[in-house]
Amino acid sequence: MVNQAPRGEGSWSDSSGASNSGGESSKESSRSSTPVLDADRSDRLRDKMRRRMESADRWFSLEFFPPRTTSGAVNLLSRHVARRITEDRTRVTNPVGADWEEEDGGFNYAIDLVKHIRSEFDDYFDICVAGYPTGHPEAESYEEDLRHLKEKVDAGADFVITQLFFRSDTFLKFLDDCRAIGITCPILPGIFPIQGYQSLRQLVKLSKLEVPEEITNVIEPIKDNDAAIRNYGIHQAVEMCRVLLDSGKVPGLHFYTLNREVATMEVLRQLGLWIEDPRRPLPWAVSAHPKRKVEDVRPIFWASRPKSYIYRTQDWDEFPNGRWGNSSSPAFGELNDYYLFYLKSKSSKDALLHMWGEELMKEESVFEVFTCYITAQPNCSGQKVMCLPWNDEPLAPETNLMKDELEKVNRRGVLTINSQPNINGKPSTDPIVGWGPAGGYVFQKAYLEFFTSSENVTALLKVLKKYEPRVNYHIVNVHGRNLTNALDFQPNAVTWGIFPGREIVQPTVVDPVSFMFWKDEAFALWIEQWAKLYEDESPSRMIIKYIHDNYFLVNLVDNDFPLENCLWQVIEDMFEMLDAPPEPV
């Protein structure tokens, strides 16, 4: 598993194949390309639904409406990532409160759009249409509305999701009536847990539904108690869903969340459908995109920024499976449009200033921010540092295994942004470092990645001589000058697992080529997320810019994973060399 590296100090070289972040980031922008239909449609939504129904597994889907602001979009997506929510379908709805206006040649009815899609794109898209358990409010009759629904299905709709309703028997009657007139496609009940008195009134007004008297009698006396109404709404939704699922006629549930999914999650917990702590199939968050279904290897550098990695590799035709390989030219996407969304923190500017310092006085002020993030202790303003530009979430559980060591080195200017402890054969079910199927064993090499000053790097290079070939290192500055003792283009597996009846899995690597692409992003975050919080030419901004321009990005790998992690001793030796009195001339 250990990649032998050439001995010696190595030599400085200029980077190739990667662009420099270069001070303030590029202000160029590019237009997004015209979407191209993906010819690979091997795992379609309707096929997933069919498999679920054939296996009799109970399942659910969640609906969110598009946020109106960039920060709203970031917050919504970050909640999905934190909870491992993946979306298989998107529903486009008319703006709230807007009236539909007919247009000549336009899609005046849903059936017009269904026919157009099938005419222009054949069966490429999976199409869902709306059903109304009590009939559409503008239909002449319930029976007429059912006929219109059948016309939409006959025109090419794949499945139906209903408008919300308040009684389980309302949906079950609607389902039976649909089957009686020949509608055979899946019909999913649209579930809306009542979450507040005013939101219920508004929704009922828009949907033109009547709230049953038994529900009104309960919520009217508690209409000013949001918590009580929410608890009742959860109870009412759970009871209704149980009847639907126990009927044997309902394959799955569709929830209207109104972008407030907490009540929905509680409903799903009580139904036994929400998995609280799913075992990780791999050490990193797996993408639900069909193109990535065989992907099982990634560079470690994006461990805390998986959305960034997915964005920068979205144009790949194939994804690494089994081994990363000795590729000398991975095609990572450029960063021009990247800043507009994916580099944005989910925290507000004010929150970031409270965490990272409204005014920085010296480099040590930055050291303190990193230290507070590691220790979870309040900063000098009494605020906890919950994120950094390179880590938008609290620390991973395995990081706590090295918490004391990380605190010590960050206080002295070794500003860590990524790390993992060495692991030698822990069970794959271990609650902290485990991943993969049960019955296996997982392994890790110790890894440490950090920014530090040129003075520290000078001492570090001298210290590292005595740790070769055990320790591989890669040191680079913002301009792309790098020093490494790793073999060119040779990836080093730093996480692997052994499982019954399977080949060894190596999901995480340190790849020298990918590191040069990562360094652009890592350095750019100093400017894009931190420096730009402050006014131009302000002392705080100049301190961050100085670090960006003069510090180095370093990664270290201890290849002897069965032994005690030596990387902390490497850093300690560096500090001792710096603290030692100068030798007499």
From TrEMBL:
CDD domains the UniProt entry points to: MTHFR
Low complexity compositional bias, start-end: 8-24
Annotated region (Disordered), positions in chain: 1-47
Gene Ontology cellular component list: cytosol
Record's compositionally biased regions (Basic and acidic residues): 38-47
Top-level lineage group: Eukaryota
Keyword Oxidoreductase: yes
Needed co-factor(s): FAD
UniProt cross-references to Gene3D superfamilies, sorted A to Z: 3.20.20.220
Any one biological process term the GO annotation gives: methionine biosynthetic process
Database matches in Pfam families: MTHFR, MTHFR_C
GO terms of molecular function: FAD binding; methylenetetrahydrofolate reductase [NAD(P)H] activity
Family annotation (InterPro entries): FAD-linked_oxidoreductase-like (IPR029041), Mehydrof_redctse-like (IPR003171), MTHFR_C (IPR053806)
Domain MTHFR SAM-binding regulatory: 279-579
Record's keyword annotation contains Magnesium: no
Pathway assignment: One-carbon metabolism; tetrahydrofolate interconversion
UniProt keywords, alphabetically: FAD, Flavoprotein, Oxidoreductase
Family: Belongs to the methylenetetrahydrofolate reductase family.
PANTHER family per UniProt: METHYLENETETRAHYDROFOLATE REDUCTASE, METHYLENETETRAHYDROFOLATE REDUCTASE (NADPH)
Protein name stated in the entry: MTHFR SAM-binding regulatory domain-containing protein
Lineage summary: Eukaryota, Metazoa, Chordata, Craniata, Vertebrata
